[in-house]
Amino acid sequence: MEVTALPDKKYRILIINPGSTSTKIGIFDNEISIFEKTIRHEAEEINQFSNIIDQYDFRKNTILETLDREGINISKLSAVCGRGGLLRPIEGGTYAVNDLMLKDLRSGFYGQHASNLGGIIAHEIAKGLNIPSFIVDPVVVDELDPIARISGFSLIKRKSIFHALNQKAVARRVAMEMGKKYRDLNLIVTHMGGGITVGVHKHGKVIDVNNGLHGDGPFSPERAGTVPAGDLIALCFSGEHYREEIMKKLVGQGGLVGYLGTNDAVKVEQRIEAGDQEAKLVYEAMAYQVAKEIGAASAVLSGRVDAIILTGGLAYGKGFVNSITDRINWIADVIVHPGENELQALAEGAIRVLHGEEEVKVYPGNFTTAKI
Fold first, then answer.
1. What's the CA gap between 8 and 6, in Å, rounded?
2. List of long-range contacts for 291-296, beta carbons under 8 Å, 24+ apart
3. Angle, in degrees to the nearest 10, between helices 277-300 and 265-273
4. pLDDT tens track of the chain, all 372 residues?
5. Taking the CA of residue 63 as centre, how many other CA atoms within 13 Å lie in the half-sphere pointing to its CB?
6. 263: left (phi > 0), else alpha (psi -120 to 50), else beta?
7. Which of the two ends of the chain, N or C, has the fewest CB atoms closer than 10 A to its terminal CB?
8. How far from the centroid of its chain's Cα atoms is residue 278's Cα?
9. Start-to-end C-alpha separation, the chain
10. Left, alpha or beta for 360 (phi > 0: left; psi -120 to 50: alpha)?
11. Is 137 exposed, middle or buried (0-12, 13-18, 19+ CB in 10 A)?
């Protein structure tokens, strides 16, 4: 559907963000939230479906029933925006949902994840209302410089998989606070949640970032990050572990979970306050590794850094933030934006297009990753 930009119009947008066991929804009038709700899905409800894509009707109907129960008239919507799923590598921005995107999301060719349902449900609801549907800055946003793709091992390329939605949204907010344009700044944005990613934002493009999913960069509450490759290979071929077991130890059971048995930073801080020296050492090591990654990111920008941004759930921890800041504040000012308001970020992406501040992008566009 063609999008006509009207800068002064007030748009009402439905935002849909599916997670593994919940679906977050919101209604926004332009950038102002007027309704938000997290719909929890019981295990028995989810487990009846063999594939994530099979949950489509169940999740869509649950959303519509919730909106009806809350007295929200969907006929007044101007657009629907869903969380972007696992798609082909694309540059950042707001994309209109089209047939090719729907095909890729439904097939799960690039990976199965609950977020794949976001664009599909957004499209189906919008189609019935004859209004546009969008996704914004999915995790597959890939703007890496060619040099950043070189891993050092010719059979493996470095990939861009990171918290693009929150990183881009926070970068734009900080730029606005500085009275500048995002595209005019050099920023290092660090998202710190279950996974940790450090993005090098150069003039509106994330030209380098660690793969926060499959073992690259700092360890995090749930992920092991970069580990010694030789020792990992020896472990894999020891005959004592299955492939799936090793993957779980790297992603899901790595980091704080592997060392301390919890991914809850608040509980770790409580253990530290109670005198747990092991918890103190591991927690400080996580901050140490984040600071090292930020230092490496500053080298990508030759030290010309306008600001360093710390965001995500771990940014609420003052002690953790201070441990990082003490090591990096010589590089540039450190700005802390705790949390990750994904519904707000999705709404802002849709509004930028509807108000004509950005052009809507067509998936997959002409963007292709460099081949080596």
1. 6
2. 291/323, 291/324, 291/327, 291/328, 292/218, 293/190, 293/196, 293/198, 293/210, 293/217, 293/218, 294/188, 294/190, 294/198, 294/324, 294/328, 294/331, 295/327, 295/328, 295/331, 296/198
3. 130
4. 667 667 678 999 999 999 888 899 999 999 999 999 999 988 888 889 988 899 999 999 999 999 999 999 999 999 999 998 899 999 999 999 999 999 999 998 888 888 999 999 999 999 999 999 999 999 899 999 999 999 999 999 999 989 999 999 999 999 999 999 999 999 999 999 999 999 999 999 999 999 987 779 999 999 999 999 999 999 999 999 999 999 999 988 999 999 999 999 999 999 999 999 999 999 999 999 999 999 999 999 999 999 999 999 999 999 999 999 999 999 999 999 999 889 999 999 999 999 999 999 999 976 544 333
5. 28
6. alpha
7. C
8. 30
9. 36
10. beta
11. buried
pTM of the full structure: 0.90
CA-closest candidate to residue 93, choices 350, 293, 337, 295:
350
Cβ neighbours of residue 277 closer than 8 Å, sequence gap 6 or more: none
Q: What are 141's two structure tokens?
A: 């946003």
